[in-house]
Design goal:
Elements lengths: L7 H12 L8 H10 L2 E8 L2 E8 L8 E5 L12 H11 L5 E4 L16 H17 L3 E6 L1 H10 L5 E7 L28 E6 L7 H9 L5 E6 L10 H15 L2
Parallel strand pairs: 3-4, 3-5, 5-6, 6-7, 7-8
Antiparallel strand pairs: 1-2, 2-4
């Protein structure tokens, strides 16, 4: 399993916004809002195993929430530049939210070593702490694959987190390199009454439809499962549908 990354798209979209003629006709206050929401800040977070490399996409001046999006398994090449992570970020950012992405320990420029999903839970908590201190807003958690399995553990009981989004939830066995196949469990969510969105491809090889439907059926409301027909684990050719699913649900679930 290899992840897919996007690098130049962020800078190209930012450049387009800066150079578009329509900015010349905006009132000063609107111009500041547009530039803030489309800014990208590179930074390092203080993590439990050392600094964590991160990117922050700025939000609107009147943002109602701040969000974090967690990347897939680093031993499969997962980083904060993953395409699913990027498009999930764009969906949340389109609602005006500042959105943080970061590399788990031992990934990219982040310090530390991969901890097989254990210490990574604490990495997510460090990211939530940073967002809370920076913005003092209700938080939204989103994660893809490994990022969902790990991050949900940190976010589900955190009173600062208002909503949970899991893309490509790995309810089937997953193995990386010489690791034994790992089966993630989500029983802890059975007491979670926060709004929960699960969005997966109908052909997700690591998230069999029947198992995912059974998981979601076992969880308390509010919840929603979106199966994207034709989509695989990486939403190849279906990233637009992923983004639309996140945007649509957020507008209903978080007001």
């Amino acid at each position: 399993m290899k992840t897919q990354e996007v690098r130049g798209e962020e800078l190209l979209s930012y450049f387009f916004i800066l150079t578009s003629d329509f900015l010349l006709h905006l009132p000063a206050c609107s111009l500041v809002s547009v530039l803030t929401q489309n800014s990208i800040r590179s930074l390092f977070l203080d993590g439990p195993a050392g600094r964590l490399e991160a990117l922050l996409n700025g939000g609107a001046a009147n943002a109602t929430h701040a969000a974090v999006v967690c990347h897939p398994h680093p031993l499969f090449g997962g980083t904060l530049h993953n395409k699913v992570v990027f498009h999930t970020m764009k969906a949340l950012n389109s609602l005006g939210f500042p959105v943080l992405r970061f590399n788990f320990r031992g990934t990219g420029l982040s310090q530390g070593e991969h901890d097989h999903g254990n210490g990574e839970v604490e990495d997510v908590r460090a990211a939530l702490d940073w967002l809370d201190a920076e913005f003092h807003l209700p938080l939204v958690f989103a994660g893809f694959s490994f990022g969902a399995a790990v991050g949900l553990r940190a976010a589900y009981a955190d009173p600062r987190v208002a909503a949970l989004i899991a893309a490509g939830t790995p309810v089937g066995p997953v193995a990386a390199g010489e690791e034994e196949p790992r089966v993630y469990t989500f029983d802890f969510l059975k007491e979670c009454i926060k709004p929960k969105l699960f969005v997966s491809g109908a052909r997700d090889q690591f998230g069999p439809r029947a198992k995912l439907e059974a998981l979601v059926a076992s969880l308390p409301e509010p919840k929603k499962l979106v199966m994207i027909e034709g989509g695989d684990h990486f939403f190849e050719g279906r990233l637009r549908e992923l983004r639309e699913a996140v945007e649509s649900w957020m507008k209903e679930a978080v007001r």
